[in-house]
Amino acid sequence: MNKIIVLLVLLIHLTDFETTSDQFITRQGQISFFSYTSVENIEARNNQVLSIIDISKSEIAVSMLMNAFVFKKSLMHEHFNESYIESDLYPKATFEGNIIDFDPLALGIQTKIIKGKLTIRGITKDIEIKTTIENNNGSYLLTGDFEVAVQDFDIKIPPILAPNIAKIISITFRFEYQTYEK
Amino acid sequence: MSKKNKIAIFFFFLFLVTGLSFYFGYYKSSYKNIGNISAEVEISSSELVSSFMVNEKHANSIYRGKIIEVVGVIKEITFVNDRNTILLRGDNTYSSVLCDMKLNQTEEIKKLRKGQKIKIKGVCKGFLKDAILLHCMLINTQIDE
User: Fold this and answer.
1) Could B98 and A27 be called an inter-chain contact, meaning their C-beta atoms sit closer than 8 Å?
2) Contact between residue B114 and residue B54 where contact means Cβ atoms under 8 Å apart
3) Burial class (CB within 10 angstroms; exposed 0-12, middle 13-18, buried 19+) of A127
4) What is the value of pTM for the model shown?
5) CB contact under 8 A, A28 and B65
6) Is the confidence at residue B87, as pLDDT, over 80?
7) Which residues on B lie below 8 Å from A73 (Cβ)?
8) What residues of chain A lie within 8 A of the CB of B130, using their CB?
9) How do residues B23-53 score in pLDDT, each as one tens digit?
């Protein structure tokens, strides 16, 4: 019995050690989105995006609070949270994916595709994102941009505001990962 | 009153109302005057984190979107992405209170040290791995030179 417990404890410690050494985290990732139309440009930024990458499995997970996007004008912030994203009902947006052909040991810059699932307003879509990965000897910097169609996430924009909001929203991201210490 | 005048008055009020709503809206969102608004809740950083860990939904209903004052010990200060961020210790090593400071606080933040106990006022946005506070400012902090 004792041996089993010892073995279990050892096993837990070993697995724990393994996961911590392969995981990198950022709690201050940056995501910005832009909507360009002839009527007005809308820009918002979230500096508190949480993301974890597991370099041995090439997995990435991202989670963010939708109401933590900061806008220039409060009315935009209000519309975004109350009418479009409904952040009371869907407070978070998430992304889970795999970095294809990721080589965690290669130093310097590599450009890879991340295939994964993006969930906004409880609606999940498959998406491919091109990213630039910079490996600075033990810390990783992921940057890139991609586009999202407003329609894909069933976001209803009243006809009167339709000319103000782009059909396609461009998104940029910047994640600086550090070793995950619990 | 002629029809023309009525229309003019109508537009005048329309512009006035939209102008005012933009003006007040802008101040509401940017929390420029957060210093003048009193906090709705006062809590320690460890209590805040633990209430989110126990029941996130319930904690959201209490704190989300509200101006709160948090007392806690500095775990870390970072300047990632040109933001000044102070992390206050939670009730466990895994989670903390992440305070995104207003940019006019830079000089004061530079004088702070890890392990110092401070009070921060900000708008609670919710919880990911840490409780997140935006538009934060330091309150009555004694600076140890």
Assistant:
1) yes
2) no
3) middle
4) 0.81
5) no
6) yes
7) 22, 25-26, 29
8) 27, 50
9) 665 554 455 577 778 888 999 999 999 999 9
